[in-house]
Amino acid sequence: MRERRRHALLVATSSYRDPSLHALRAPLRDATELARVLGDPAIGGFTVEVLDDPGAHELRRGVEDFFADCAVTDTLLLHFACHGLKDEGGKLFLAAADTVRTRLESTAVPADYVSRLMMRSRAGRAAVMLDCCYAGAFERGLFSRADPEVHVKDSFSALEQAGGERGRAVLTASSAVEYAFEGSLVVPSALAGSTMGAGRAEGEPGPSLFTGALVEGLRTGDADLGGDGVVGLAELAQYIGGRVRAVTPHQNPQLWMFGAYGDLTIARAARSRDPVTVPMGVDVRAEERRLRRVAEMRTLLEGPDVPQALYALGELDQLARDTSAIVREPARQALTAAGPRITDTHWDLGVIVAGRPGPEIDVPVSGPPVVRATTKVVSESAWLRVRPGARGLVFSALAETPGVHEGRLVVRAATGECALTVSAQAVAEEPLPVVTLGATEPSHPRGPRALLAAHALVAALSVGAVLALGIRIAVVPGQTATGPFIALAVCTVLYLTAVALTARTGRTRLPRLSRRGGLLHGGAALSTVGAVVAASLLGQPADGPVGRYDRPRGDILVEGRRITGSEDTGGEQRYVRTYTDGELYAAVTGYASQGSGTSLLEQAEDDVLTATRSSEKAGGDVATTIDAAAQKAAFDGLGDRQGAVVALDPRTGAILALVSTPSYDPGTFAGSTAADRKAWDKVRKDADHPLVNRALRQTFPPGSTFKVVTAAAALENGLYDSVDEKTNTPSPWMFPGTTTKLTDPVDSLCEGASLREALSQSCNTVFAKIATDLGRADMRAQAEKFGFDAALEVPVPAEESVYPDGAQATQEALSAIGQYETAATPLQMAMVAAAVGNDGTLMKPHLVVDGDNGSGALSRPLSKGNADKLRKMMRSVVESGTGTGAAIEGVEVGGKPGTAQKGTANLQSPLSWFISYACPEPGSPATAAVAVVVSAEDADSTDTGGGPSASIAKRVMQALLDK
Fold first, then answer.
1. How far is C-alpha 475 from the chain's CA centre?
2. Quick one: 320 and 363 in the same domain?
3. Is 704 annotated in the active site?
4. What is the pTM of this model?
5. In a domain, 914, yes or no
6. Domain that holds residue 243
7. CA triplet 5, 6, 11: central angle to 5 degrees?
8. Other C-beta atoms lying within 10 Å of the C-beta of residue 44
9. Is 205 helix (H, G, I), strand (E, B) or coil?
10. φ and ψ of 335, to 5 deg
11. Of these residues, 184, 660, 704, 949, which one is catalytic?
């Protein structure tokens, strides 16, 4: 008989409303760990459902559905971790969260109820595992999990009548007269020498002895006592018994089998995945055992087997959170040591030619094999191109504009990330004159007129260049006699002297030259011409540090107020850049430094600010679209957090606020003194990377804010006509072609939810299913309409946001909820909110008033009708969903929060997102759209995300609405 389906139901009841029932510490941890191994296709291959703290009615219905919805070819596994209670007659009950100890018949689940359902089930094979406790035998930090007067076998005796081919089994944590212990609560005074539950800090929830051994046997494959590659129920029970008795002789698991059962196959042996076993019952201290675990996992992490390394990564991640520093620090060191490494973390490319692609540079990346298998390389700078290479990464540079360029490349692997900073000085490409020397026959004289004309041209060039540069040095402040000028003067004098000496020989025409003389004379002429050209290039006022700063630079304006200036120092580089509220506006202005070049708006508008296109004595001013009040609200809202804020006017695309934190003061390194160089090195080497513009030039996983894009795709492609139409999406929802389930923050609220309800409650299942229903092409097309996968200049170049291509069905579903490799800048997510608020039209973002990149419609991601529907959905989020923290009285506000993890081992703070639009008059186009991303310890991993980011968005919107 071929097995068709394997389904497991895990019941974990930890908390009880009846104060006479103590809360249990292990059930939820037990269920989580057991679900992981049972659901692993390489081990258990079960579809797994977990009931966490169910009420009695929910538990009865869940168990009944579990045994009813099956076929004769199915295998079922039911696991209970809860209190076991008895009535006065010794009848066994399984406690639910709302069980009342004095009302067991109506508030608990009788064991014989489970027995009857199991007997009637059409499933060919079914097993029940009972890891149950009752609260009346609490003593010395241990829990009892079986009543001395309750006989479990009697409660399931009806199964002996099942007969036929239907096999049934019951495996319990202990005999009818023994305790069953929660491993993390076993104390030496009660059970001397026991270490069951070690590997976690004292008092931290750990596995029960029974389920801990069960999970261990399946995960490691050690329960395969027969060595045939599979773990049967009988040998699993034998293994669990041995492991538990190694800890305490006072607990003996029991197995009863009924009917024509055979040995039910529970799992495949997993030794090839995880050969490391956690010793149980060894007489060592808990910390020593966890330290051994760290060493074992580090060996696996650095070994050649990538799947084992990934498993070890997860284990070390848990150990890195241990409450004991003795365990925690080595675990963190192991994670750090296994990360990708680059020997030279800074590359200075020297001088490169602007607009010309540079050569590819191969940079080795070292680390264990898991690094090579999981490496992804990313450029955080538009002028740097990067791709994976045979030894690590390969990058090249293409700087579009002259100036000093600083960039950053990031290598990300499963074990961590590292960065490579790159700097270069880009110069404008200038054609050099070409001088061609013809061959000179020694037996024939030069043509007198041609040779005389050539000498006259060289002499005129030399004398003219010397006079021009000499006059400049004399009349222009700050100009001095540089090396090239002196070299030119010397060459000119020598050349003219040679001509004069030739004339004094008495010849009336130029002499005949030998081959050697011709070469020497031609070389002298060519050297002089080269000196003329070099001196002319280096003497241009806009191309050298001396020339660039010999006159005031134009200013950058915010609402007509100058936020930059130029201070006359009287030195060689006469004018140094100054900044007003430098940290507040650094993400807008960038920097203009005599020693470090330019960036951001100072670089993008350099031609205007330095007046290189005109003959003005000072550069022209650049007026920005920034709103001063909104900028300050965003900056103050972010505070000391690491994050970014972008605010747009949806009607025009004007950027009203642009903040990236931590920030820096560009005025501290604007000059070229030793103090300026020290300040530049400090900010450049800062571990928080303040020079990185997180608002424009860094992408982040957008989390659930991307569900707005997915909802737009559903509406635009006609998948749903009404936002209140039920989607018939199950919760949890199974990924196509897998046994893995996607869950929701609250499954009961997301079951069959409408689009409006799904966005309001941030239902993962609904939007993941939308992506699989639509397909990759429609999802990608919708993302691109909002601006993903497209270059954008505002005029500062922004990093491209990414909707991943070539994803499998599971990855496509994850991409649609802002996970997998979906990545967006805060600017991009502000554009999404702006398009929704502007009747579906996306205006081109711009930072400069009347700039070359001016405003205009970029695309139309939504029809007006669908934009109205999506506005209703986003309003529901703020009015009654997960984004209430952004609500403003009397104003239409629509929003969407989200969270995302940062860092491959999730050791960094999570990201809290919020995108929103605001409209002072309901129904009219929005006047503000905001995107906020912030690193926040208090960001809710269940996807609320409304806390810190929503409050910041609210402050910015209020500042704009108060105008």
1. 57
2. no
3. yes
4. 0.52
5. no
6. 6-276
7. 135
8. 26
9. coil
10. -65, -40
11. 704
